[in-house]
Amino acid sequence: MTYKKITGLIPILQTPFDSKSRIDTDSLRKIVDFNIENGVDGLGIALASELQKLNEPERNLVLSTVVDQTNGRVPVVMNAGANGNDLAVYYCKQAAELGADAVMVTPPAGGGASLRPEAARQYFRDVENAVDISVALQDVQFAPIAPDMVAEMAAELPGVVACKMETPPTPGRIAATVETTKGTISVLGGGGATFLMEELARGSEGTMPFCTTPVEFTEIFKLYRAGKIEEATKLFNTRIAPIGHLIAQAPELAIGIHKEILKKRGLIDSALVRAPATLPDQHTQREIEAILERVIV
Questions:
Q1: Which of 64, 156, 220, 231 is the most buried (most CB within 10 A)?
Q2: CA angle, corner 255, sides to 253 and 260, nearest 5?
């Protein structure tokens, strides 16, 4: 069995809704093309896609639309984790049937750090054994995966080809995982790519940021890989860091801020975020508008 490599720049797509909160598939197709045409290495559907606010038919509609529009140009990664082994297996099989190239899974969120290591291992075994597509492990603060366990699972399960390490502080997490896995899988960053430059310096092979700035991220990776680290850092600090700084002040607004970027780029008509959603106060709204004018060109 040959598994697709999941590495490089893999933005997490946002789900556009119309004014009545229905999925806007036409705009979703535009976002897919915008990212692929600007050089991304893959596309993801995950929490930043408001996946937790979609019912099952809607999940399937988003994935099938993305797979159809991507048309094999880049791998499509679907978040298929769940709070039970059987449900995760179900979601993973469903994703594979709908054409996903890989699934990304976290340990059951109810367990987190308290989940027994062997129970977490069996969860990953059940998922990997259920599908014939690539599997990426996702480490997050509410459901962490120790770097040593990532290495164990990568060694035991051939379908595990990547991990997304997001438990803060991510630079140290990345460094430890790169050391334990010794190049056997791709170690990726996340968390909105806030610490991308530090993660790259510690051996990360990519990141899964929001899907709003692929032009900038593609150029940053190009410069970094060419050894032009100062230029890459300057571009990051000028075009990406201000967005991250704003979101750090109000993390609950992250999805809405990035939808405003997509709207400003002309890719979506509505920046609606499904309820419950926090709206920015007047001060934050002015800051959002100022950053969009300065950063988005």
A1: 220
A2: 90
